[in-house]
Design goal:
The chain is α/β, with parallel strands linked by helices and about 260 residues long. The protein has one domain (about 1-250): TIM Barrel (Alpha-Beta Barrel). The chain has nine helices and eight strands. Helix 8 (about 220-235) packs across helix 9. The longest helix is centred in the middle third of the chain and has 18 residues, at about 105-120. It is globular and about 45 Å long. This is Hydrolase TatD. Keywords: Hydrolase, Metal-binding. InterPro entries: DNase_TatD-rel_CS, Metal_Hydrolase, TatD-like, TatD/YcfH-like.
Length: about 260
């Protein structure tokens, strides 16, 4: 019943027990997982995982931290791979001003190129935004990202930022930090997001929810995000699981 919209199950942190982690996700009620490949190293392993499991799908793109390494050939490669029926979106793409491992102008150019590709392919995009809210929104507007829409992944911004993203046809996705006791702003924002625009994710192996904070995250823990979201909106766990799964299927254009 649960739809996990953002995982990195091909990460090295899962090399010892990947199959068991995926099995545990199913035992926890996860019926669909979207896994992310975001650079030259992770895109091939992401594709392999999507082909190995019928309920795992791929999103491929170029992460802002790796922007300085992306070439036009890489973009053509992403376009070619996107024809695979298991690829349901492009990303994660965006801006990261926290780590700043690539020059900001290079990040912006790589971001713009990927939005243009997504519009050409008519595919939704998954946005990585760290400490760059206004610049991300500006680029989304200038590149007409509303034409394809997508996900503001692991949202940590203000309601003002969320509102502008919603106006551009984006869904707002929350991960483990929503479950933290001190997560005042994320809870307040999540309460205001319309039900038909909410999504849940783990971003595993990162951002582990309470009560496992500090340990490796895994897709099965998306249930704790769903529980918190259900509490925030005064709904049952089952209702929230259904709502967020329906939203994800609609965004990724999955039938059934």
């Amino acid at each position: 019943m649960l739809f996990e919209t953002h995982a990195h199950l091909n990460a090295k942190e899962f090399d010892e027990d990947r199959a068991e982690v995926i099995a545990r996700a199913q035992e926890n009620g996860v019926s669909t997982i979207v896994n992310i490949g975001f650079n030259a190293e992770t895109i091939p392993t992401c594709m392999d995982l999507a082909h190995a499991y019928d309920f795992i799908y791929a999103v491929i793109g170029w992460h802002p931290q790796d922007a300085k390494d992306m070439t036009d050939e890489h973009l053509e490669w992403i376009e070619e791979l996107s024809r695979d029926p298991k690829v349901v979106g492009l990303g994660e793409m965006g801006l990261d001003y926290y780590w700043d491992t690539s020059p900001r102008d290079v990040q912006a150019e790589v971001f713009r190129k990927q939005i243009r590709l997504a519009r050409k392919l008519d595919m939704p995009i998954i946005i990585h935004n760290r400490d760059a809210h206004q610049d991300v929104l500006t680029i989304l507007k200038e590149e007409k990202a509303a034409d394809v829409g997508g996900i503001m992944h692991c949202f940590s911004g203000s309601w003002e930022t969320a509102k502008q993203a919603l106006d551009m046809n984006f869904y707002i996705s929350f991960g483990g930090p929503l479950t933290f006791k001190n997560a005042k702003q994320p809870k307040e924002v999540a309460a205001k997001v319309p039900l038909d625009k909410l999504l849940i994710e783990t971003d595993c192996p990162y951002l582990t929810p309470h009560p496992f904070r500090g340990k490796r995250n895994e897709s099965g823990y998306v249930r704790y995000v769903c529980e918190e979201m259900a509490n925030i909106h005064g709904l049952s766990y089952e209702e929230m699981a259904q709502i967020t799964a329906d939203n994800a299927r609609r965004l990724f254009r999955m039938n059934g």
